[in-house]
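For the sake of transparency, this paper describes our internal protein records without simplification. The record that follows is passed on verbatim for readers who wish to inspect the format:
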Amino acid sequence: MISVENLTVEFGVKPLYKNISYVVNDKDRIALVGKNGAGKSTMLKILCGIQKPTSGAVNVTSTVGYLPQVMKLSDDTTVREETRKAFADTTKLKEQIDQMQHEMETRTDYESDSYTELVTRFSEAYDRYTLMGGDGYEADMERTLLGLGFEREDFDRPTSEFSGGWRMRIELAKILLRKPDVLLLDEPTNHLDIESIQWLEQYLQTFAKAVVLVSHDRTFINNVTNRTLEITCSHVEDYRVKYDKYLELRKERREQQMRAWENQQKEIADIKAFVDRFRYQATKAVQVQQRIRQLEKIVPIEIDEVDNKAMHLKFPPCLRSGDFPVICEDVAKTFPRRLYQERQDLPSSGDHVVFSNVNMTIRRGEKVAFVGKNGEGKSTLVKCIMGQLEHEGNLKIGHNVQIGYFAQNQAQLLDDDLSIYDTIDRVAKGEIRLKINDLLGAFMFGGEISDKKVKVLSGGERSRLAMIRLLLEPVNLLILDEPTNHLDLQSKDVLKEAIKAFDGTAIIVSHDREFLDGLVTKVYEFGGGKVREHIGGIYDYLRAHNATTINEAIQKKG
């Protein structure tokens, strides 16, 4: 389907890739992995033809669908009309069929050669239309949009009313509906909630012919892929196993590399010692020259650039909060018609009760998750707790509670004129100041990148920097709204361990099951205008209701 031969890409002194070769076969579901900057997104762009390699060849014998991590979107259609563009060939053929049918109905020269030719063309076109799915494309379109989280009432809304994340879902729907032979997906779960991620998993497992994806969602990767390509040291290591098994094999391979490297270093040291010792002895001149030539022929063993140092981050000390940092008693939130129409993630008419009769008590030290489909009120309740939205009912914030809040818009509050390093240096106190470079590296800002000004950073980079700042503030109640969207696996591990070790209380709004698993001990499920409490982790919740998805659990409970 796709054959990569001797691929080389050079951006600077050191090549990004050097003489890479591999093949993407039918039914391959490949996780493309590697450290930040290894060239994963670049590889997807090369596979789909957007970017050209320095040398080598990419032979594509199949149709390809590509979802980039960031896309410029400009359209003035409805959701339905925009999604229908995926069937441009089908709808064009249907128009031709309708025209031929009309012509056959109005003509009377049934015995003529041209009429016979028209009937033949009509039959061939109709057969082709049937093979392409015929009139069933509308049903496929609706199933896909519903699976990705849209409601039926959204279908005829203008796409301009939706946020960038929801419009990315429309683009994903269009790609899936075209049914390409190879799907190239760059961080497809970034804009999806848990329900939509699980739907996408099932789609890729069942319908996709071949997939190459980049993702930092470990559960998603494990559930979808059956092969792992690691970009490391400018080449590709091919593991024909799932991601978790790859981690085991990779650890073994690196241990072998380390032993080989250590043996080589010992050999090099022995040769150099011999040369230094006998360099000026005439009787050893021949042997010295032999050793020098031997040294020149040694090909250095490269070791994977993996940082095995554990970055342990501890929140700075803070005042002890009261026993109950957050108490909700019959809390409700309703958006009036005027404000409701302004919200991009909600239908365009009618008053709307986001949630009502919310009763919850969050105790000091608890780590809880807010989960549920987008638009069900998770972020709205967070804003009520923060005092940013008015509400009905009684919402109490406990004694001595100091809140640290992270949301995507926090990134806009950074000082554009500071460097990355200075941004963190200004808030870091105590021993952590000695580890600023380690901390920045753990969140993908290592090396010279730390000297970049905030104003040149992408949205994702700014979000990561805002996250680091929050981790250094003395707070006793953490509220994190989708904290993992722009973090790689290493960064998520650092954040997860930091929250585990946090003495205070944490509320985490997230769709990342792997991140929540083992971190939270209570789940608040948002759905249908209600907020339900469940003791235990997210997988405990699903098992308790004999459900495979959260939506299924809600329906069983309702």
About this structure: The longest strand covers residues 352-362. The radius of gyration is 29 Å. The chain is about 40% helix and 20% strand.
